[in-house]
Design a protein that fits this description.
2 strands, globular, SufE family protein, Sufe protein. Chain: A, two-stranded antiparallel sheet, alpha+beta, Fe-S_metab-assoc_dom, single chain
Length: 125
């Protein structure tokens, strides 16, 4: 779809701009992703047995990264998120084109998304 990584970065930035913003009341310490160089807030709520994520970041590339993850995982049932194969991240080459600290942040975001799903799955059982 894109000829080079600059076009992909521009697309990620655009995705970040279209990200449904997290409510300001959820921009709290407990919702900060640990392990990210930038500040990334991630909130999850269970609506009709599906997890709905909202997020924000203070860095435009990171905001784009979390937007990709939210598009992939929001409005899914908790078990589907738990079972989800995240190899698409490697397949699109995202991790290899990020700095080591951003790549660590990406892994931390995926872990937090899965942790929310585990918590909601436990509530449903």
């Amino acid at each position: 779809m894109f000829e080079d990584w600059m076009q992909r970065y521009e697309y990620m930035i655009d995705l970040g701009k279209s990200l449904p913003l997290i409510d300001e009341s959820h921009k709290i310490e407990e919702n900060l992703i640990k392990g990210c160089q930038s500040k990334v807030w991630l909130n999850a709520e269970l609506n009709d047995d599906k997890v709905v994520f909202t997020a924000d970041s203070d860095a435009i590339i990171t905001k784009g990264i979390v937007a990709i993850l939210i598009r992939s995982f929001t409005n899914q049932k908790p078990q589907a998120i738990i079972d989800a194969d995240t190899h698409f991240i490697d397949e699109i080459g995202l991790k290899e084109h990020l700095s080591p600290t951003r790549a660590n942040g990406l892994v931390s975001m995926v872990k937090q998304i899965k942790m929310y799903a585990l918590a909601y799955q436990a509530k449903l059982n």
